[in-house]
Every structure is written in structure tokens, then in C-alpha cells.
Amino acid sequence: MSYKMKTAVLSALIAVLSLIYILTFVFDPRKQERNAFALLDPKLLNLADRIEIFGASGGNTGEEIVLIRRNNIWFFQAGLSYHPEWYSDSIPSELPVKQSRVDDLLAILSRKDIYPQRAATIEGRERLGLIEGYASRIIVRGGAGLPLLDLLIGTADALNRSVYFRMADRNEIHSGEDRFTIFTESRPNSWYDLRLFPPESNLMVESVQHVEVTLPGNNSFFLRRGGGSWIIPGNESAELDNIKVEAWLRSVLEAEGEDFGELLPTEGGITLGFGDGTIRIMQFSSADENKRRNVTVSGSPLTYILSEWTVNRLFRESSYFYKTAR
After folding, report:
1. What is the distance between the alpha carbons of residues 196 and 199, in angstroms, rounded to a whole number?
2. Which residues contact 81 (CB under 8 A, 6 or more apart)?
3. CATH, range 199-321
4. What is the pLDDT of residue 25?
5. Would you tell me how many other CB atoms lie within 10 Å of the CB of residue 89?
6. Are 66 and 80 in contact (CB under 8 A)?
7. pTM above 0.70?
8. Which strand ranges, in their side-by-side order, compose the sheet holding 64-70?
9. Rg of the chain in Å (alpha carbons)
10. How far apart are CA 311 and CA 294, in angstroms?
């Protein structure tokens, strides 16, 4: 083997060994283990009964969101927004929230992940947006209001994939995949459970036996099950499209609002009669400038704001259900 070839082989071997050394250093399991931890101890999850989320005051939200747990169910505590005009005495102080969204947040906080340390200086906190009163913040409390977690979230990295964060009582700054700003930058209504008939109502299309629809302007009509099909009492000769009727009923039972609103004078409604003798009454307000309507449902203290699209799906003329258009 020539000298040049020996030199080339030796150089290649050195390069391979150097790469192995670097990769071993970077991916050292012991080093990764030191950087892997859960932000919130999973053992403390059952103690959590209050979550406070603050948007960054230097950002676009700057809002406070407070979630509280009662009887193992999470609620949104209303009236704490930086926009108090959104709320009034007619809106309950505790609003239903999407339980799965709260579960997602707690799962992220309690999941063990790799969070490498990046800095631990005052200059680092200032540069990375981790100053109290400026950073986004997530506080999880339990028991007598003691913080189980107090997390400050700062700026994103150059690729906008990770964010810098630190515990409020510590100087160490870590980074991790940005799973947090989807919560800290969210608006209140992203947490609300806005289903007019929540799943626990156990209301089924098959259980609906009769319906009264009062359109704006007091034009009313009835639908009733009869002999395995739907009819309009008083106009039994009109053949109805059963598939259309039941698809419409499903849209009624699955309807969602876009926000909670105030109780307003009503104009029109939908009454649902079920096989067990129970009645659910939906009452609608007049349309606003955006053609939205507020709606209440009997048995619930809540008032929902429905979009024009949802209102149009719910308010159907009787002719809509005919097999042959008239």
C-alpha cells in the first residue's frame, strides 16, 4: 500500500472516529436523561383544581384565562377577561369547557420530554423574553391554591419550532418543542364547550317524536312521526323526505355556538318532543347586523351566539322537507 493511500485510509478512519465521538457526546443517554423531565409531576395531577393562563403582555393577547375544577369537571371562570364587556350579569360565572382540551394541556405539562438547558443568566432571561410580567405564563394550582407548576414561556427559536421557558422560581432556561403557545395565545371561546345539547343530555334523533318550528314572523309548522315516516299534521298528503327530516334533526341536536352571549328578546324557536315525554325548547333572538342570533335552550342557564350559517341550517321552511318541491 502506497504512502498516499495509507494517509487517505488513516484520515478517513480519524474522520469516522471523530464523528462517532461527536454523536456519542450529542446523543449521550446520560446527558439526555439529565435533560429529560416532566414540567408537572404526574403524581400531582389529581391535586390540580385551578389553571391560570396568561398571554404575553408584549404579544397580541395579554389575557388571563382561569379554569377551575369542581367534582372532577373543568369550568371556565368568566368575568376575568381583559374585555369585561364580553360578560354581563346574564352570563353565568362558570362556563362549560372542552374537557379534552384541558386534558391535552395537562398531558403536555406532565409528559416527560427532553428540555436542554440553554442559559441561566439575567441577560438570558431578558433576551429570551422570560421576564415576569412580559412572558406568557401557565400556573397550575392545587389544594389551598399552592402552585404545583409556575411556568414562564418566552420567545421562539430561530426556526420558530421551539420556545424558551423557565420555572418562575428558577434561573435555568430550557427549550422545547412549542406545544404551549396554542394554549397561551388562545381566545376564551377556544376553551368553551359551545354545544347546545352536550353529550350527557343523551338526546338521540330516533327519540324525537314531534317538532314545532316557529320561524321569525310567527310562521309555524309541525312535524310528527307517523307510521314509520314523518308527516305534517293537517297536510298528510304532502310526502316528506324522511332522510332530510332526520338529517335536519341531527343538525339541531349537534348545533354549536360560536360564543356565549346575553339573554335577548326572542323571535322564533324550535320545540322538540321526545318519546319519554320530555320537551326541549330553543328560543332565538332577532338577528344582529351580522345575521347572528342568540339562542337559549330550556333547562340551561346559558345563551349561545349562533352564526348566520348555523341559523340558516336550523330555520328551514316546511317546503324544504317535501320530497317534491312546491
Report:
1. 10
2. 63, 64, 87, 188
3. 2.60.40
4. 41
5. 9
6. yes
7. yes
8. 94-96, 73-77, 64-70, 48-54, 136-142, 146-156, 162-167, 173-177, 117-119
9. 29
10. 10
* CATH 2.60.40 residue ranges for the chain: 199-321
224/273 Cα distance (integer angstroms): 9
Task: Match 304532502 to its residue by C-alpha cell.
Answer: 238
Query: How do residues 66-89 score in pLDDT, each as one tens digit?
Result: 999 999 999 999 865 544 554 555
pLDDT of residue 226: 85
Whole-number Cα distances in Å, 321 to 89, 142, 223, 236: 40, 53, 10, 13
Report long-range pairs for 172-178 (Cβ below 8 Å, ≥24 apart): 172/117, 172/119, 172/120, 173/117, 173/118, 173/119, 173/120, 173/124, 173/125, 173/128, 173/130, 174/35, 174/115, 174/116, 174/117, 174/118, 175/115, 175/116, 175/118, 176/113, 176/114, 176/115, 177/113
CA 179 to the chain's CA centroid: 14
Query: Which cell goes with 30?
Result: 446520560
